[in-house]
Amino acid sequence: MGAVAIEPRTGTKASGLNRQRVRDGLSTAVRLSRQVFVALRQPQAVISVVLLALLLISSLGVVVSAHENRELFNTLSQLQAERDGYQREWSQLLLEQSALSAHGRVERLASERFGMSVPGKEDVVLVPVMAPIVVSR
Questions:
Q1: Residue 63 within a domain
Q2: Which domain does 94 fall in, by range?
């Protein structure tokens, strides 16, 4: 396969018309750009451009802050669910601790495993508190 080059015909009415359209388009573009530059020199136009820039920056800030707010809310919801799970577990552990440390259970285990019993009044001996010994130098 070979490459085929198509060259525009010169001297035809269609190519002359296209060139004229291009020239007219360029002259219109140059004229409009001159008008824009002249308009930008006016204080009202400069103020409008500055306000438009501030509006765009502000709208981007709103979008970013809304996105961050959603992310933080999702994180907060996850942390609250985790906290609730820990609170349930803590409550269950407190119930288990109170059940395991009940006086009746401790007394029963002490008598079964170690052969211990509650002493009677005649077996209780009170030891008087001695005055502390003071050593002077």
A1: yes
A2: 43-115
What is the rounded CA–CA span in Å between residue 19 and residue 26? 11
Q: Does any domain span residue 60?
A: yes
Q: Give the CA distances from residue 92 to residues 81, 82, 84, in Å, rounded to whole numbers and listed in that order.
A: 17, 16, 12
Q: Domain total for the chain?
A: 1
88 located within any domain: yes
Distance CA 133, CA 137 (A): 13
pLDDT along the chain (137 residues), means of 10: 55 75 91 82 83 96 98 98 98 92 86 88 86 75
Cα gap 92→98, rounded to integer Å: 10
pTM over 0.70: no
Residue 110 inside a domain? The answer is yes
40's CB contacts (< 8 A; 6+ apart) are: 46, 49
Interior angle at CA 126, CA 105 and CA 131, nearest 5: 125
Residues 15, 8 contacting (CB under 8 angstroms): yes
Q: What's the number of CA atoms in the CB half-sphere (13 Å) around residue 44?
A: 1
